[in-house]
Amino acid sequence: METAFDALGQILETEFDTDLNGWITDTVSREVWTKVRFVTPPAPAQSDEPSGAVSPERSAVLDFVDGFARFERGIRALMAAFLDEGQRFTGSTLDFSMKALSNAPEPDQALIAALPDVYRLRNRSVHGDAEPSSEEVKQALAVSMAP
């Protein structure tokens, strides 16, 4: 496991100029990353601001994956209010989002129709089947962050 962690850290540093420890502590809940023995805790003055792992020069793919992770964490945070203490929403955030949007008093049909394409782009990006341009990332994040 340590070898895989080190290899991924080297790839992120080389390809995306991103520190794996910083990226994990910025994007994963503290409850989770503290259980990973390879993650070095940040200095005590941890805030919600991104660490030095977030660089304006990083790739559109990394921006997209990061933005999408924040979107999904937001959905899970909303769902937490409806779950028993200690439970975590493990369902499909796409299904939840589409159902919630469809049940709105005035559903935004264009947003509902665009959302599955955003998830597909995310999946293709994460699995290395696509590398979205900066413009595609802006459009996809605009859909996933729509009010």
Give an overview of the whole structure.
The chain is an all-alpha fold and 147 residues long. It is built from seven helices and no strands. The protein has helices spanning 2-16, 20-27, 30-33, 60-80, 93-102, 109-126, 134-144. The longest helix is centred in the middle third of the chain and has 21 residues, at 60-80.
Task: Outline the secondary-structure elements.
Elements: H1 2-16, H2 20-27, H3 30-33, H4 60-80, H5 93-102, H6 109-126, H7 134-144
Helix pairs in contact: 4-7, 5-6, 6-7
Give a short summary of the structure.
The chain has seven helices and no strands.
* Average pLDDT, all residues: 77
* Multimeric state: single chain
N-C termini distance: 40 Å
Largest sheet: none
Total beta strand runs? 0
The rounded Rg comes to 17 Å
**Count of discrete alpha- or pi-helical segments spanning 4 or more residues:** 7
Order of helices and strands: HHHHHHH
Please state the overall shape, judged from the principal axes of the Cα atoms: flat
Helix and strand content put the structural class at mainly alpha
The residue ranges in which pLDDT falls below 50 over 5 or more consecutive positions are 45-53
- Helix proportion of residues, in percent? 55-70%
Percent range for β-strand residues: under 5%
Structural key phrases:
mainly alpha; flat; about 150 residues
